[in-house]
Amino acid sequence: MTEPILSVRGLHVMFNLRGRKLHAIRGVDLDVMKGESLAIVGESGSGKSVFVKTFMGLLDANGWIDGGEIVYNGEKLTDYKTEKQWLKIRGGEIAMVLQDPMTSLNPLKTIGAQIIEAIELHRPLRGRESYGEMISLLKDVGIPEPERRAKQYPHEFSGGMRQRVVIAIAVACRPKVLICDEPTTALDVTIQAQILKLIRSLKEKYDLTTIYITHDLGVVANVADRIAVMYAGDIVEIGACDEVFYDPKHPYTWALLSSLPQLGEKGEDLYSIKGTPPNLFADVRGDAFAPRNPQALKIDFVKQPPYFQVSPTHRAKTWLLDPRAPKIEPPESVKRLASEGVSGFGE
Amino acid sequence: MVKYVLKRLASSVVTLAIVITIVFVLLRQMPIEGYFDNFEKLNEAQINAKLANLGLTQPIPVQLKNFFANLLRGDLGTSSRYSAGTSIASIIAQKAPLSACMGLMSMAISLAMGIPLGAAMARSKSGFWDKFGTVFIVFINAVPAAVYYIFIQMYGTSWMGISMLFDRNNYVTWILPVFSMSLGSTASYAMWIRRYMLDEMNKDYVRLARAKGVSSQQIMMRHVFRNAFVPMIQYIPASILYTISGSIYIESLYSVPGMGGLLVDVIGRQDNPMVQALVMIYSAIGIIGLLLGDLLMGVTDPRISFVKKEGAR
Fold first, then answer.
1. The whole model's pTM is what?
2. How far apart are the CA of B305 and the nearest CA of chain A, in angstroms?
3. ipTM strictly over 0.85?
């Protein structure tokens, strides 16, 4: 975990929705380190998926990068103009596992054909060799009887098995970065752990850098080295897993952690964050979370906080870290998490 | 698979038998004048003699039984007024091939024009081809066919110097009727393939294919187009079979001696045996077309299975 494999500086993404401009990503800085496992968390609409799509040039047609740069292994991806340039990156360098395995495979092609398609796109294997590679990939992702299963169609697979196939397709071209966009959201709880375990073992085997996108903090606790908390198109706090869980600094991170059902008191209502995320069609002033934060400072409504460094690996965008700020304690439940940890968390 | 086909065939035969019976019984309720050319001049004895001769004095169930018995021997009966005394099979054998030939040619043209048009429309959504195609489709569907058929005939014959009348041995005279006939289905093929392709393009597997590095060109060819074509395959056998019924309007416009309008003609002349035979043939075509469509769909779409599986997934 020494040098960044992917670094993003001041990234802005806009969307044009029926003539109105939506500012989906608002100046994000992020370094993804080689070999690490990074989790990006945040509620729906915070821009997590859009953010990682920019790494592969997969924004929808009505979206565009409006400033900032993305550098992958020395290549400036934000300069890419043609599809041809992107084709090398997609699948070959950076691969993606989508959320819903029930719909992310072509229903009319056999599993084998879909994996072979990916193999032959980026590697010089053909015919017999790519067939052999496909079978060994199926074995790698834990599909029994690969020769028989390869001839079957997606509808003959269960959800968990399909997700394994999607993962096999993702690693088929030996990418260096694997983006998992809510890889377990659509699966049964019992299958989730297996899939996460599989991704972790493939990460070791193929020396992958993994980026998880999720809103499930349970998943995060299991797999992540580092956590980036995203809110309204910006990363408000980022740090090592322990730092973010046990010493969170941003009020939004507090709120997010407090809404973990495991932290609630028996018999009391579960905590939920009041209000809704800001309207990204309009300019956001100050700290985007301020309107939903009962303890917001006056300055939070006026000026956007910069990053304050908490430790070499931990920084957060909140005025609370300014030396002049009043001392505001995190909520009880978050402090309890820090002192006791949480039982029944993760596996 | 074989079991499924046999089952479907058996139920098709039953359906057809029901259709025939209903039409047969209804036709027996028609006035008997239809069986005679000179009804007013005949006396009662002559009328009864002729009816008895035609087998019409027997009770209806017996007549029906005889009809089915003849049918099984391949005998469709003889025309009574349209072309008195000629066997219906020979009338059809003379007319159907021409209609079918024209229909197949126009269908081939519609597929060859409509599908690329629809695919181009889907690819350039709200671009040039999409707008062009939309104008074409709206025009074809909104303007009564008779209007542009006549325009094509008027301008086509005068500009290209082609004869207005169809002559089966002069190939140039085939062009205009076949082209006119193809326009309607061109529009509908284009419309459907565009719609199915747009449906497919928004699916997750297309996003996954993009993410694994397939170029947009290949996504269109290998994934989107192929998958979009499957729902259309179902209708193709029926369309092929229906070509033998011909197009009333075009055949009369160019005086093509085909099947078009034959049914209307024989109904007008009260030629009951022919009405019966034609209705039976057309419903058989419909039933067989649907059956073939379903089978073809099952062959192309692996999700459709003809055998009941226990405990799937």
1. 0.79
2. 11
3. no
